[in-house]
């Protein structure tokens, strides 16, 4: 009898710590209209007078056009779509489809992983049995992964964000493993020839020079320079050499260290981050940065 009582107490205490739908995260408002939620998603096949939902109105149209004609220009060899990610989990059993931007996944496992997304405002739509049940917008940052949970009766919850590094998948660039066999390393990894080197979403040399001129004119003190660097780094990446130039412009090692730590996640060629070490005046600052990088990884 005593054993049964003890077991019951254990099960009751365990249930108190069990996962509860909607218990964690930030609830994102459902912006889908009632009329849309009663309409079936357009699966590409229109049958008679069937009313179907076209979600394309909520996307940002692409500005990149492929030249027509039977030429090699039809292939986007080195085109980088983006570097943001979205992971969505739907624990409840059902037939669900998730659409983020222009990407669409139907997955019976309840786990939906989206890669190569552009940073900025991106719509997400969730369908059950091809009917829209949820739509909202996500704010994506460069080299950042959003992790979300969706419960049909509670809503979509943002659980958190985490940084994504270039080396996460074992290669420095997604395109490397495909383009190397063709000898097609043109250096235009983001689809634009003006960007620095072959790195994705890196501030061009011209833009960086303009920024450094502004930094020298308006950044009278280290705190002002840090604020300007923090602002511009939100929507772009840098090479290690560019980061060295910014860090080296600081007056004090403590501020140099703060800038170097802040910009490490924004460095497109982190294997060259040793260049930034040369900006410090003291070995103690270099050691602190190396310790930060080792823990960051």
Categorize the overall geometry: elongated
Low-confidence stretches: 13-18, 45-50, 64-70, 186-198
Mean pLDDT: 76
Instruction: List SSEs in N-to-C order.
Output: HEHEEEEEEEEEEHHHHHHH
End-to-end CA span: 52 Å
Task: List how many beta strands DSSP finds.
Answer: 11
Helix content: 25-40%
Task: Enumerate the strands of the largest sheet in spatial order, edge to edge or round the barrel.
Answer: 1-11-10-4-7
Largest sheet: 5 strands, mixed
Descriptive account of the structure:
This protein is of the alpha+beta class and 297 residues long. The chain has a 5-stranded mixed β-sheet with strand order 1-11-10-4-7, with no helix packed on it. It is elongated, with a radius of gyration of 24 Å. About 11% of the residues have low confidence.
Feature tags:
297 residues, alpha+beta, five-stranded mixed β-sheet, four-stranded antiparallel β-sheet
What would a concise description of this structure say?
By secondary structure, the protein is an alpha+beta fold. It contains 9 helices and 11 strands.
